[in-house]
Design a protein that fits this description.
The strands form two sheets. This protein has a five-stranded antiparallel sheet with strand order 1-9-8-2-3, covered by helices on one side. The two termini are 19 Å apart. The protein is of the alpha+beta class. The protein has helices at residues 50-62, 86-99, 128-138, 163-172, and strands at 26-28, 40-47, 74-83, 103-112, 119-124, 154-159, 177-182, 184-190, 195-203.
Length: 221
């Protein structure tokens, strides 16, 4: 994925930790409950082109967010969800991916979940409906569960930092805008060490290949 159509925001000048790629194999569960119980805990996300992911991680670090270096910029499609049947879950996510055509995403301007949650995010404009549709399809069958809040596609840029830092994030990125194509989604497992491990990157619009084997695609980790 590449093809950034427009990015409008001045780069932060403060410290920047190591930025991860859009398919980084490890994501700490800073935005979940960090717990693992009986079964398998999974998540599904849309990753970003490296250029945008790295830029947004630098911004997140500039607001003092300690998770900037370990959570690549992304759009969550399925948040931390327990499943009892890995094979059924994997096949379910593959099936949804096979029916989804690639689409463009535009992220633009800021919003906040305050006062309910100390989060500032970038809005999803183009692609909002596609994200909602994917979420609705994915959160069925082996991943069906009641969610505490209605699903709202977004890109977190500051989480659980001081109020003034949240204010700064909301102001600094209010004119940010970027557009890029999305052609796949990542299926992650939350392991016993509290780290999100990429199990499979699933291309959109492709039927399941016979050469994927029992353990998934060539990109499975």
């Amino acid at each position: 994925m590449s093809s950034v159509s427009k990015v409008t925001a001045h780069e932060p000048k403060r410290g920047t930790p190591r930025a991860g790629s859009s398919t980084a194999p490890e994501i700490r569960d800073a935005e979940g409950n960090g717990q693992r119980s009986e079964g398998i805990s999974i998540g599904v996300i849309l990753g970003f082109p490296a250029e945008i992911a790295e830029e947004l991680q630098r911004w997140r670090a500039s607001f003092g967010d300690p998770m900037a270096g370990v959570i690549p910029a992304h759009i969550t499609l399925v948040t931390t969800t327990m499943t009892q049947d890995w094979d059924a879950t994997r096949n379910h996510v593959r099936e949804v991916a096979s029916k989804q055509e690639p689409f463009n995403v535009t992220i633009a301007g800021t919003g906040s979940f305050r006062p309910v949650s100390p989060v500032v995010f970038l809005n999803v404009e183009d692609g909002f409906g596609d994200c909602v549709s994917l979420h609705q399809q994915l959160q069925t069958g082996p991943l069906e569960r009641e969610l505490p809040f209605a699903y709202h596609p977004h890109v977190t840029v500051a989480h659980d930092v001081a109020p003034e830092s949240l204010d700064e994030a909301e102001t600094a990125l209010k004119d940010y805008r970027a557009t890029f194509p999305v052609a796949s989604m990542g299926l992650y497992e939350h392991d016993d060490n509290g780290i999100w491990q990429l199990r499979e990157e699933l291309d959109f619009g492709t039927e399941r290949d016979s050469d994927r084997g029992e353990d998934g695609a060539a990109g499975a980790r």
